[in-house]
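Sequence in, structure out. Go.
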Amino acid sequence: MVNRKELDPEQSPSAAFGALLRRLRDDRGWTQTELGKRIGCTGAHVSAVETGQRSPTQQFTAGADRAFGTGNRLERQSRALRRTALLEGYPEYVAHEARSVEIRLYEVGVIPGILQTPEYAEALTARSVERGSITREQGNERNALIAERQASVRRGPPPLIFVVLDESCLRRPVGNAAVMRGQFERLLAFAALPNTVFQVAPFALGDRRPLSLPLYILTMENRSLISYAESAQRGQLERDTKSVVPLLTIYHQLQCEALSQAASVAMIQQMRKGTP
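Output:
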């Protein structure tokens, strides 16, 4: 078949899943569109899952298992993907982030990856490994992705980056005092860059804070919008501009309520003085 991408199941868990899905489909002589109709999605979505561009959701694997009559074989296979350190939709978000011209983010409880020092990132990872929530290999994957993202936003010309951090990101101790001091210095250096806007949403906002969960919004070169929202167990990527625009409005409302950049920098400088 022309332009048919070869799949190497040894490459990654997503490649292994895609190869299995394609083999089951080929065995029945179905096209991607035909399988999509049986599952309740488009043929393009089936193609994206087969080639690893999209992660299979539980709804997708359940529908595929029903279509193929394979019990829960595909669901079991997909668990290898969901055991990774990355939430659904996040790898796709990162790929778009590397090509965006504007990045807007709001984070709660933890400094976002693109602003973490290596010491801060390693301290977070070490605790997750100790709790057993991720393996050491998954921790290494997470840290490597952070470094990759940081390199991508330093490209030229650099994207405009708007950051609003909930005050909890600054108040939560991670690692020792030296780690936090280094992290505060990193934030101050970031705020001084010509392509950044940095703000803190203080606890004093109370119920005036329009967002309670992390939110990332990208503007691409063609001015299209992409959002990524995250909860404790799930990530949701949204590429429909009509759905993203209301989130962008909320983000602008948050910026209006947050401290100015000067006041935000002053807060961090004061907190840094409190570390030995």
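Check: The chain has twelve helices and six strands. The longest strand covers residues 160-166.
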